Structures are given as structure tokens and as C-alpha cells.
User: Which sequence fits this backbone?
């Protein structure tokens, strides 16, 4: 069943002459379109279809490029990593070896300095302690110890004598005045004796009186240049040996006491 003919649908636009049914259309050159009637838009160009083989080809080329370039980059990075690890492992040993070699080089080339020989200054010799027969200055007098004898139990004669509590030690001394004026010498209080234990003994005045012919050593007035020889007695325990005799310089002088070793 055919649709009824509607003349209004096949009518030409206003202002255009109707086209007879059997008329032929004018051919328009290829790529050109006939100008559209006034008031109408030109028809949109039909998009060209891309070839179906182009997209797969591009994808395949991209995959090949990625595989080629990416593989070489991966290989390069792996080799760099291996070089870095090898340098990290061998670096300290190489540096330490170089450092030890460089440290050993100066030690081997530089000669060790010779030790400086230092000679210690000799210690000052201690002054020798005067002994028997030596002259020793003590204040206004010069003393000389001539002899020492211990183990004496009694001093004096048969009728006038004194006995020791322990034993007497007789010390014979010579006293000389070395000043320019007269001085009095008294053995008791001027001479003391010491033993090895450091005990000190005073002179026995009574034994000194009995032990000297003219009372030498008892308040002797000695002029300048003169001397007196006297026996001085010390009452000590039996068996005691005296070690030193000290000669007192006196209370009114700045001179030091003199010591004589026995």
C-alpha cells in the first residue's frame, strides 16, 4: 500500500522554481558542493574512516621500541648497580691499603731520630762528717777528738774516785781558742754524746774532775790561740757504743754545732 501523494511535501522552497519530474540534476565537480539555498546550512563533511591496520601497526612499533630501548636501559642500570656494589666492597680495602702504604712510606723513608743522650747532673756530694783527728769549728773554739774508750767502771784513785751507774766512756778532746779574745771552756754542757739509737748523754762533771790531773775541762779560761786537752766522761749503759760527739757552739753565737763521727 502506497502512501498517498502529498503535493505539499514535494514542493520546492519559496522563491525556487519547481523541478520537473524528468529533469536531470547538474553534476557538481568532485570535492565541491553546490551552494546551499539561502537560509540553509551546508551539509557536514563525512569523516574519513581510518585504515583498520594502522592502530595495530602503531601499537606493535611502540612495543618494539620499548623492548629495545627499555631492555638496554635495564641492562645499563643493572651494570651500574653491579659497578657501584663492587666499588663499595673494594673501596675501603683499597683506601685502607693505600692509607697503610702511604703511612708506611714515611716511616720507611724517614730515619728514626736518634735518642738524645741526657747525662744527669751528678748529685752534690754530701759533706763528709769529721771523724777522730779532724779539726771542727764550734763557736769560739776549734775541737779535735783524739781518742775514745768505753767500758770504764770507775774513775779516780783508790781513795778519791767515782763509780759509773753503767760504764764510763772517756773521750779525749783538744780545745783551741780561735777568736781574738779570751773565752771560758766548760766541758759539762758543751759536749754531748749520741749512740746508734739516737739517745743523747750529758758529760759527767765529777768524773771529769777525777779523770784530769789539773782539772782540765772545768771552767778553763783560754786566751786567743791557746788550747787545752781534757778527758770528758759519759756515763752510759754497759755495752753501749757511742756513735757521735756534738760540740755545742754556744747560746750567744750564730754558728752551727759541730758533729764528729766516732
Assistant:
Amino acid at each position: 500500500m502506497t502512501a498517498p501523494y502529498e503535493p505539499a511535501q514535494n514542493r520546492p522552497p519559496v522563491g525556487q522554481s519547481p523541478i520537473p519530474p524528468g529533469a536531470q540534476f547538474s553534476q557538481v565537480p568532485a570535492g565541491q558542493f553546490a551552494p546551499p539555498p539561502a537560509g540553509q546550512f551546508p551539509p557536514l563533511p563525512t569523516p574519513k574512516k581510518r585504515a583498520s591496520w594502522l592502530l595495530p601497526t602503531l601499537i606493535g612499533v611502540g612495543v618494539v621500541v620499548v623492548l629495545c630501548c627499555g631492555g638496554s636501559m635495564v641492562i645499563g642500570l643493572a651494570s651500574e648497580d653491579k659497578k657501584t656494589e663492587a666499588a663499595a666492597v673494594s673501596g675501603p680495602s683499597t683506601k685502607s691499603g693505600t692509607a697503610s702504604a702511604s703511612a708506611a712510606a714515611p716511616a720507611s723513608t724517614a730515619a728514626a731520630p736518634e735518642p738524645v743522650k741526657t747525662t744527669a747532673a751528678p748529685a752534690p756530694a754530701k759533706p763528709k762528717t769529721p771523724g777522730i783527728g779532724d779539726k771542727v769549728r764550734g763557736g769560739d773554739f776549734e775541737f779535735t777528738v783524739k781518742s775514745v774508750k768505753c767500758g770504764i767502771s770507775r774513775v779516780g784513785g783508790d781513795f778519791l774516785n767515782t763509780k759509773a751507774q753503767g760504764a764510763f766512756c772517756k773521750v779525749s778532746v783538744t780545745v783551741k781558742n780561735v777568736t781574738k779574745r779570751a773565752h771560758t771552756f766548760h766541758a759539762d754542757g758543751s759536749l754531748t754524746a749520741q749512740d746508734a739509737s739516737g739517745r743523747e748523754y750529758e758529760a759527767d762533771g765529777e768524773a771529769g774532775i777525777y779523770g784530769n790531773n789539773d782539772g782540765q775541762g772545768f771552767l778553763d779560761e783560754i786566751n786567743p790561740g791557746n788550747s787545752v786537752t781534757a778527758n770528758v766522761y759519759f756515763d752510759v749503759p754497759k755495752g753501749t757504743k757511742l756513735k757521735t760527739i756534738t760540740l755545742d757552739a754556744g747560746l750567744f753565737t750564730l754558728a752551727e754545732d759541730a758533729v764528729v763521727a766516732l
Remarks:
- Residues 92-101 have pLDDT under 50 and may be disordered.
- The two ends are 177 Å apart (CA to CA).
